[in-house]
Amino acid sequence: MNWLRELLLPEQATVYAGQVDDLFLFIFYISAFFFFLVTALIVFFVWRYRRRAPNERTPKITHNFKLEVAWTVIPLAIVMVIFFWGFHGYLDATVPPRDALEIRVTGKRWVWQFEYPNGTRTLNELRVPLGKPVTLIMTSDDVIHSFYVPSFRIKADLLPDRYTRLWFTPEKEGTHVLFCAEYCGTGHSVMGGKIHVLSESKYRDWLERGDETTQAMPLPELGALLYQSRGCATCHSLDGRRGQGPSFKGIFGHTQRMADGKDALVDENYLRESILQPQARIVEGYQPIMPTFQGLLTEREIQALIEFIKAQK
Ligand code: HEC
Ligand SMILES: [Cu+2]
User: Exposure winner among 150, 239, 248, 288, fewest CB in 10 A?
Assistant: First the structure.
């Protein structure tokens, strides 16, 4: 009865989707079977026990032990099958594999924001590698939203001040639709997105080159964006003011005194090292508190930050 599956249900793009559909159709067929059985019996009994003589009486029947046991035990057995089947699927759906790729999802009126382990961020477009389990760690910036992907058969709420999870293993390359399934205000109906399932190599390629918006940006502009979004701004000023770290103003091309008494020329290599291995050389008069950005920035992003710092005359 595959045509029924195709008629009733969206495309299956995960193994889990197949499991959900099997159980759904099992319940559907059982319900259909009993619906037709009960309806047929009603029609049959109406006809079979119609009144034939004017003062005909029904015999006084108080109970039927065998029949009562049957209509208790059979439905009980059926619902127990549904319960254990469903519970098994529920456990599968709630416990992600340990090695899953973790992506952070933030819902806000009315966009989906995704953040990858290497710091790449995208809006409304999620890219995932084919055949790899993915865990979404989700929260909301404002009201309750709900992350719903029909072809993956997954749905969960995003709540402010709390994290919820969803996981899936995409099995079909291509684009799948994402909806917000919790009414969240006037823009709710446009709060959608796309999930692109890419081959592993295409996914890596994309992750290394960054997303489209930042890809098109000139380096210094991207650097300015990263200076804010990666928190450099909390420690480094642009106007010469001393913060937790030295200001970026005019440092390029000048020499800096290090804590070990040596001088260092601030050039591209020095900046690169300062960002990736901040503890390698410490600027005199500062604490070694800068976190490393090793693995958190793509090559292009590092270059962008260097160009941005260079431009601070
Ligand atoms: C928690 C505060 C903090 C953050 C966040 C931070 N830094 Fe730093 N940074 C420092 C401190 C303190 C120093 C000086 C000590 C040292 O050399 O490690 C420093 C030094 C540097 C230097 C060398 C500056 C010089 O005058 O020689 C560069 C370049 C630099 N940081 C770049 C960055 C960039 C780019 C970012 C963001 C991607 C960043 N830092 C984020 C605290 C921070
Ligand atoms: Cu929403």
Answer: 239
Where a domain ends, among 175, 195, 213?
213
Tens-place pLDDT, residues 96-125 = 898 899 999 999 888 888 888 877 777 788
Q: What is the pTM of this model?
A: 0.59
Identify residue 191 by its one-letter amino acid code: M
| 96: three-class secondary structure by DSSP | coil
In ligand 1, the atom with minimum distance to the C-alpha of 246 is 26
- Picking from 187, 188, 206, the residue whose alpha carbon sits closest to that of residue 196 is 206
Task: Judge if 43 and 109 occupy the same domain.
Answer: no
Q: How far is Cα 310 from Cα 159, in angstroms, rounded to an integer? A: 42
Distance 282 CA to ligand 1 centre (A): 9
Question: What's the rounded Cα separation, in Å, for the pair 218 and 91?
Answer: 47
Residues contacting residue 274 through CB under 8 Å, at least 6 positions apart: 281, 290
What CA–CA distance (Å, rounded) separates 11 from 300? 38
Quote the domain boundaries for residue 121: 101-213
